[in-house]
Write a structure and sequence with these properties.
The protein is mainly α. The chain is built from ten helices and no strands. Helix 2 (about 10-25) packs across helix 5 (about 100-125), helix 4 packs across helix 6 (about 135-160) and helix 6 (about 135-160) packs parallel to helix 10 (about 220-290).
């Protein structure tokens, strides 16, 4: 354990350099939701000023914008991070380093961008709309934890299985329509809301959107927070199980490789012995023909 920590601290400069290179290579992906949210915000403010839109309608529009911005950041971050995790997993293992370090750094960088975009939206909202930067910061931190854990799980699954990308696209498409971006449940739809709240992404999107429009009221649902913490704990257990599965499978694959190598060597030796026997038999036959 101590050796692993010493090795980690020793390689921190190399790890940071590697992570920054990864971010530099994919910066357009991380900058796109930030730039898009600012452009949409400016267009919305212009339309509201020209039409003298009511503050209630403005609040609903800002609610959707905050939800769309946070969902875009979460989706892009998870997608990019698990792609990087898949490529760097075995390289990191060669140096006895946990590849989750780069997941944390990249997710931290995108979370800061997301928080800045949400704060800009908060300052753009009308005076009568209550907003809370502290509540927004809390949900951004929860989103960062969620992105690190989920991207790690998907990255591990891509090592074990194929076609994970297709499953990710399908789940992401379904999630987009069941979080409060297009469909915002009313207060009369209590059962539907509670079912949707079982999705941790709904917890994050709704919490961030309510922080922008409703302020600290978004933190009142204590049981929902506890449920999210327990769900994250369950996902951490899944990560541990996947690590063990990959380790066992790695040794099995290595043993199979060694066995196949030994079988190939035996086949080569057998073929060479058979070839030598045939050559010897042919030479004996030629000698007998000469004698005759």
């Amino acid at each position: 354990m101590i050796d692993s920590l010493l090795n980690f601290y020793k390689n921190i400069p190399y790890l940071l350099k590697h992570v920054f290179a990864r971010i530099k290579k994919r910066w357009i992906w991380f900058a796109t939701p930030f730039i898009a949210s600012i452009i949409i915000l400016l267009v919305m403010m212009l339309i509201f000023n020209l039409n003298n839109t009511e503050e209630i309608k403005q609040a609903r529009a800002y609610y959707r914008l905050a939800a769309l911005t946070s969902f875009a950041f979460i989706w892009i971050t998870i997608y990019q991070v698990y792609q990087i995790y898949k490529k760097d997993y075995f390289i990191s293992k060669l140096y006895n380093i946990n590849p989750i370090f780069q997941n944390i750094i990249i997710t931290l960088a995108t979370s800061v961008l997301m928080f800045i975009a949400l704060v800009i939206i908060i300052f753009a909202t009308p005076v009568n709309i209550e907003s809370s930067i502290i509540s927004t910061l809390y949900y951004v931190i929860m989103a960062m934890v969620f992105m690190v854990i989920v991207s790690t799980i998907i990255g591990l699954l891509t090592i074990l299985y194929t076609k994970i990308n297709i499953i990710f696209y399908i789940i992401s498409s379904i999630t987009f329509f069941i979080v409060p971006i297009i469909f915002i449940p009313s207060t009369n739809e209590g059962i539907i809301t509670h079912i949707l709240m079982l999705n941790p992404v709904y917890y994050l999107i709704e919490g961030i959107s309510q922080s922008v429009v409703l302020g600290a009221l978004s933190l009142n649902n204590i049981p929902y927070h506890v449920y999210f913490y327990m769900f994250m704990g369950l996902l951490c257990v899944i990560i541990y199980a996947l690590y063990r599965t990959i380790s066992n499978k790695k040794y099995i694959l290595f043993e199979n490789y060694q066995q196949n190598k030994r079988d190939n060597n035996e086949n080569i030796n057998t073929n060479s012995e058979n070839t030598n026997g045939l050559e010897k038999e042919e030479s004996d036959n030629q000698k007998n023909d000469i004698r005759v």
